[in-house]
User: Fold this.
Amino acid sequence: MLRSKPLAIALTATLVGLAACNESTSPSSDFVSSAFNTTTAGYGDLSSSFSSGGDAGGLGWRPDHGMGGHGPDGPGGPGMGGFMGGGMDGNFLGAVGFGRGPGAGPFGRSDDLSSCTLSGADLTCPASTHDGITVTRILTIKNAAGATMSKIDSTTNSIRTRVTSAGTTTRRDSVTSIVSNSSDQTVTGLAVGSTVRTVNGAAKGTENSSGKTRDGVAFTSARVMGDTTTGLTIPVTSGTPTYPSAGKVIRAMSVTMTSAGTTTTSTRREVVTYNGTATATAVITQDGTTKTCSLPLPFGRPTCQ
Assistant:
């Protein structure tokens, strides 16, 4: 896997820390439960296993009593039966079919890179800004022989994408969030004639917010999250969706909120394992309680025990 050491080390530390916190020292509450419905602001700009729409349009989280939000299970949030952060990206479920042309199919790309600059092996694209968050992208594109490319075409075999999104975003209700996100993902097997695509990557994000709840109570909150994709393998088929046949995805999030002199912490961890069948296994742990779930691919909902 092509991944920078600092990101790999930082993400490993993040996930280990979140796992250690699974037995929360403070019970979960209605105020913090909705924190798992969305990702940190700007996380949707990254290459990750989370749905790109999971960052609520680049806005930070505000805790509201009884406001479960609209997560993967609809109103009420993820609970123990769905996935946090707005759900999983369709590429990880087999919901994207193989079409014609370069960049088609799961994890394919057809970006217009004409404004990006090639330096050595890296293609650096101009930064963009939305909602106070600045996004940078660096791509490394290679053919099957390992030669560097400046654009994506039918001979492209691997694409490494590094993304950062960071800045300060303010909601209309005056909640301010300082965010810092980054990802590093490599996809191989993109060239015409390849029989399998393989994905490895990691992403992480932090969001520190302050403001007032809907009830006018001052609060501060910190959300930390990350996900890793290891050996995700997708057989190449013609014109139809195909689900991953091997690999593992680990997703984790921690939220700590302080309000009215009380600090509450809650954690959630999701481990999805693909085994070559049309049903993946999802192990979901929230605040020390673990459930094992069956996940029908590509469009099913988890069924948990």
User: Anything to note?
Assistant: The chain has one domain: 5-304. Residues 1-28, 65-77 have pLDDT under 50 and may be disordered. The CA atoms of residues 103 and 109 lie 4 Å apart. The radius of gyration is 19 Å.
